[in-house]
Amino acid sequence: MHSTIHRDNGQLLMEKVCLQSIADKFGTPCYVYSKTALELNYKAYANALKSHPHLVCYAVKSNSNIAVLQSLAKLGSGFDIVSIGELERVLIAGGNPSKIVFSGLGKTADEMSRALDVGIHCFNVESESELSLLNRIAEQKGLKAPVSIRVNPDVNAKTHPYISTGLKEDKFGIDINRAIDVYRDAASMSHIDIVGLDCHIGSQITEKSPFVDTMKRLLVLADTLNEQGITLNHLDIGGGLGVRYQNEEIQSVDQYMRAILPLLEGRSETLIVEPGRSMTANAGVLLTEVVYLKVTEHKNFAVVDAAMNDMLRPSLYQAWMDVQNVGTHVNQQEKIYDVVGPVCESGDFLAKSRQLTVNEGDCLCLFSAGAYGFVMSSNYNSRPRVAEIMVNGDSAFVIRQRETLAELIKGEHLLPEQ
Ligand code: LLP
Questions:
Q1: From the CA of 203, how far away is ligand 1's center (Å)?
Q2: Which positions of the chain have pLDDT values less than 70?
Q3: Which of 18, 122, 344, 365 is catalytic?
Q4: pLDDT tens across 155-173, in order?
């Protein structure tokens, strides 16, 4: 979970680029990602897994910009996708279709068809209905669909309820106790090829034990299947490794893998991982300008030009993300501020009760914003989507232009005059 941000002479830099200069050149709000940090994060997984056959499938949903995908594809990364949109992005970015796993519990016939055509590594199947539809579509094409069943191992990931997915009451996967029946069904289908076993128990997991418990349960199931003549080529433990937003005690990728890999000793199944947040969160920031300082009897507000539509995590999950001034003010008093956006909702805030030394016109940096940031943004309040910038060494590139007002209403139509 590398970050390439540091302060030099009072100024925040990403790699060798001063963040204030990015705000000046490209405007705010904007997301800024570090290519070096992304690459280091990918390599941390690849290195930690090198003693065992493995495939790192980056979870595209955490940041799907095609330049991000391209940077990872160049290193040989695979991809975990959840829609045809993500599939097309990976293909455009030069990703290898045979390293794509397709997750998600509501795949449509069109999505299955396209994924079969391009030859993905496997479908992570979440229900019997999905399995039958996939079998039918593969039959129409005269193909065999590679399938991994996503089981729900009933493990508590000890994370925010909205991002916990491995409990019995969650909508995801197939109850691990019923999985054998579903595998038997799958084995009897003429156009299904069983290749693996899959799970994903949640996100922002800070302990090793839920992963270890999950892997143990997967192995018991894999052995039982084996006894019944169903052999698996891979085991997929999903994503979910947490990152440090504030002061969380985080497992490094290496520590995490050192807890998992001994369980696989002597086994031939390839280990697939689907990391999202741990690849992108700390590789990115959101820059936003302070439009007004609003001091009331009860509170000080720093009203900034980014809002919940640009970064939803604080509003939706009460997520804490660090905020700092990209520059520094000497001899000026620090005050406690709520950093809020211009959207007409009280839930529109980026940070609450933060000590900041700040003037109107200053640029603030919201840290760890590379994952689930831009991808969750919307046009709420008719706000155009912000720009995305990629830093590499001492260069900065626009990897997505700021949306224009014309693009905002593109595709909308007035009714004909009566
Ligand atoms: N694989 C599957 C099947 C997933 O559903 C997810 C994330 C991942 C992998 C990647 O998990 P990660 O390594 O990023 O934890 N929007 C929320 C996070 C939602 C995660 C959804 N699934 C947030 O901002 O905290």
A1: 5
A2: 1, 160-167
A3: 344
A4: 887 776 666 666 677 778 8
Choose one of 58, 62, 100, 151 to mutate for the ligand 1 pocket test, by most ligand atoms within 8 angstroms of C-beta.
62
* Cβ atoms of residues 233 and 269 within 8 Å: yes
Which pTM value belongs to this model? 0.97
* Tally of domains within the chain: 2
Same domain membership, residue 310 and residue 207: no
Q: In a mutational test of the pocket of ligand 1, which residue from 203, 311, 317, 318 has the highest number of ligand atoms less than 8 Å from its CB?
A: 203
* Calpha distance 373→107 (Å, rounded): 24
Q: Which domain holds residue 143?
A: 104-273
* CATH number for position 292: 2.40.37.10
Both 287 and 214 in one domain: the answer is no
% helix / strand / coil in the chain, to the nearest 5?
35, 25, 40
Residues 13, 10: Cα–Cα separation, whole Å = 10
Q: Which tokens sit at 165?
A: 């997915």
- Tens-digit pLDDT profile for residues 308-333: 999 999 999 999 999 999 999 877 88
